[in-house]
Design a protein that fits this description.
Length: 430
């Protein structure tokens, strides 16, 4: 069966790069394996249904719904105003404010695309008005958007946790320090660029304005506190925290800020269902392929080969980083994760690598892929918002990848950056 699965995998990858939708190729691969392997085809829908028959994965559509509610409620404007008042007065202040906004927004929606689309227009407009080149403003916004899926809540972390059987709570906590380091490293890059290009300082608008903008956005800023505080105090599971966050988002939109109307609920729900459907079918078909891989014993065969060939765990991590960075340039992050988890996770376990460290590393690698050409989805979003060409955007983003790669190297070389916080707070159950 190993030879059969190997041939199917090669054909499958060829079909993927031909442009066929990923879920179709995964379903076809599983069906062909069952057919030629003499296994009843009736098992395919059972394994697909079993892949989503998990309590933690219910958090995924709820986090998607929460993000759509918050975006529709126009809460981003208040967060940008607070960030600008807090740090906009230093040299390169609007760039710093853009990054700070992404850090705050990350604790609300957990999506790089949502961050780039939700706050990108406001941030880019503010930076260009202050004299920044459009391509520089766009590159800063795109690179800062990668913080979204690292700081909890994070949809990729939920999917990784369910697929790799790792505590979602631990993954959430494991992403906090790397996410903050990403923000700080990008701010360090802003300092270098601001001094080199002589970006002017803005006038500090006073503590009264700072306090007023904080009060205006405080309820929104409380969202990540609600999610994380409820989870790590034992009051919520990640799934229940997502449900509570949805109710909180509705409360903000209808009662606190009054920016939502009842008529807005229908498009919010439709958008959430569409996104959930895409995520769901990917998880289902990936679950079926994962089961086929397990039956074929291909991962069980590859893992010892990898371990025998690469004896040093650090070398394995570095090669994994290189592989994921290359794949992230050509494949959507969630899809790449679902394909590679059955092969890479068992190998990492054989080396004794902490599953939280490896999970955060995998997610960060593939999220960096969202801002690298030729298939960087965040680049396409920001290109439209900034009204520049994709070629210009692709060149402008290159220097801003350096801080992100530095953080990736740091969490690869020093595991406590991802493991210390979950261990300190004693988070266990998914």
């Amino acid at each position: 069966m190993i030879a059969l699965m190997t041939r199917i995998a090669i054909g499958w990858l060829a079909i993927i790069f031909a442009g066929v939708p990923l879920w179709v190729t995964m379903a076809m691969a599983a069906l062909v394996f069952l057919w030629f392997g003499g296994i009843p085809i009736e098992l395919l829908p059972q394994k697909m249904a079993g892949a989503v028959n998990s309590f933690p994965i219910v958090a995924a559509p709820l986090f998607i719904l929460m993000g759509n509610i918050l975006s529709k409620a126009q809460i981003t404007d208040r967060i940008v105003a607070f960030a600008s008042a807090a740090i906009g007065w230093v040299r390169g202040g609007y760039a710093h404010a853009s990054i700070l906004t992404s850090i705050i927004f990350a604790g609300m929606v957990g999506s790089a695309v949502a961050d780039a689309a939700g706050s990108g227009a406001i941030e880019i407009r503010a930076m260009t008005k202050a004299g920044y080149e459009p391509k520089t403003a766009a590159a800063i916004t795109a690179s800062a958007a990668t913080i979204g899926p690292i700081i909890p809540p994070s949809l990729p972390m939920v999917i990784y946790g369910v697929s790799a059987d790792v505590s979602v709570g631990k993954l959430f906590l494991g992403g906090v320090v790397p996410g903050l380091l990403m923000g700080l490293s990008l701010m360090g890059m802003v300092v270098v660029v601001a001094n080199r290009h002589g970006m002017r300082r803005e006038t500090f608008r006073g503590f009264r304005v700072l306090f007023r903008t904080f009060l205006s956005s405080s309820f929104a800023i409380f969202t990540p506190v609600l999610i994380l505080g409820g989870m790590f105090s034992g009051l919520f599971t990640p799934t229940e925290a997502a449900a509570a966050a949805c109710l909180w988002a509705l409360f903000l939109g209808f009662v606190v800020y009054r920016t939502l109307k009842v008529s807005d609920l229908v498009p919010i729900l439709i958008n959430s269902v569409e996104t959930t459907g895409i995520v769901g079918i990917l998880v289902m078909t990936a679950g079926a392929v994962g089961w086929c891989l397990s039956v074929s014993r291909l991962p069980q065969t590859l893992t010892p080969m990898i371990v025998d060939t690469i004896r040093d765990p650090l070398v394995f991590l570095l090669l994994t980083n290189l592989l994921l960075l290359v794949i992230g340039c050509f494949m959507e992050a969630l899809a790449a994760m679902l394909i590679l988890i059955p092969i890479l996770v068992p190998a990492a376990a054989s080396y004794g690598i902490d599953p939280v460290q490896f999970g955060v590393m995998v997610v960060l690698n593939l999220i960096i892929g969202t801002v690298t050409p030729p298939v960087g989805v965040v680049l396409f979003v920001v290109t439209r918002v900034a009204d520049i060409t994709f070629e210009t955007m692709s060149r402008a983003i290159v220097p801003w990848l350096i801080p992100l790669l530095v953080v990736l190297a740091a969490i690869t070389l020093w595991p406590p950056l991802t493991t210390a916080l979950p261990s300190l707070l004693g988070v266990g159950a998914p």
